[in-house]
Amino acid sequence: MARRKEAPMVRRRTKEIDALIAQMKAVSIEDQQQDSDSEDAPRAPFRFFDLPYELRLRVYEALLVFPKTLDLDPSNHRAVAPSLRLFYASHRMHDEASRVFYGRNAFRLFPIHGRYINAKYPLFARLPRKYRALITRLELRLGPGFTRPPKGWVVDSRLGLTAVTKAYKLKIFVEIDPASSDIFEGFRTGEKTFYTEYCVSLLRALLAQIPSVHEVELDAYPSVSKDSPLLKALLDEAKLNQKRIAWGPERGWDKIVDKDLVGILEKMGLGGIWS
User: Predicted confidence band at 29 (pLDDT cuts at 50, 70, 90)?
Assistant: First the structure.
């Protein structure tokens, strides 16, 4: 008898649940229709220039600043060219983006890739004058072609260095010093000191034509010691031109402490200052 009395109540609850499920389905269908309508509706373009300049600058830096030095390279069409499409968006974006691209990246003066090392016109010579005026960092990489220096490695009017008025740093990276070891005997061109004198003449000509450079950064591969003939000659030339000397990150020379000095300080009981 109890089961017969509970039956109507169970049926009512079942109907209520069914009605609730039907309502939920109806709401879900309505939401989906609203979502589809909102997707079909045209969206207003993002107003990039409404952002503060500081935020726009961060966007430019994320897209246009590269970790390696820019040079003539077969991979440029994949690694660099896509980011430069930003220049074509508008005149205003071109002006802002070009200042970041040319002002924040380092540009190599003479090419080192095998395909372009003998090119008559290096990357720097191919840049329009207005862009050369924005460049702040230059790099001179020495060692490639030491057996026969490329004919295009000449500091002349083709480079258009008179337009470079904002460059403050010249990075010099030495890959090989042919005068540092007899192992290069038979591979060198001319006398043992020929390549050293050749590189020093390049540096002298560059510093003469780019007076805005006040810092010379020196670095090298592990095979080149700090007291190698080429590195010492470059250092002397930079000092002669009263340039500030800095050491690059490859070797960490700026962090090296002379062992004799450490020994003396330890004997004096001051060795702990280096720990």
Answer: low
Confidence of residue 257 (pLDDT cuts 50, 70, 90): very low
What pLDDT digit, counting tens, does each position of 218-254 carry? 999 988 988 999 999 999 999 999 999 999 887 777 6
Strand ordering across the sheet containing 169-174: 106-108, 137-142, 169-174, 215-220, 244-247
**Pairing, β 169-174 against β 215-220:** parallel
117's tokens? 């090392």
Q: If we measure between CA atoms, which residue out of 177, 170, 175, 176 comes closest to residue 246?
A: 170
Q: What is the mean pLDDT of residues 171-189?
A: 78
3-state secondary structure the chain: CHHHHHHHHHHHHHHHHHHHHHHHHHHHHHHHHHHHHHHHCCCCCCCHHHCCHHHHHHHHHHHHCCCCCECCCCCHHHHCHHHHHHHHCCHHHHHHHHHHHHHHCEEECCCCCCCCCCCCCCHHHHCCHHHHCCCCEEEEEECCCCCCCCCCCCCCHHHCHHHCCCCCEEEEEECCCHHHCHHHCCCCCCCCCHHHHHHHHHHHHHHHHCCCCCEEEEEECCCCCCCCHHHHHHHHHHHHCCCEEEECCCCCHHHCCCHHHHHHHHHCCCHHHHC
For residue 56, give every residue at least 6 positions away whose Cβ sits within 8 Å of its Cβ, in sequence order, or none.
48, 49, 96
Sign of CA dihedral 155, 160, 162, 166: negative
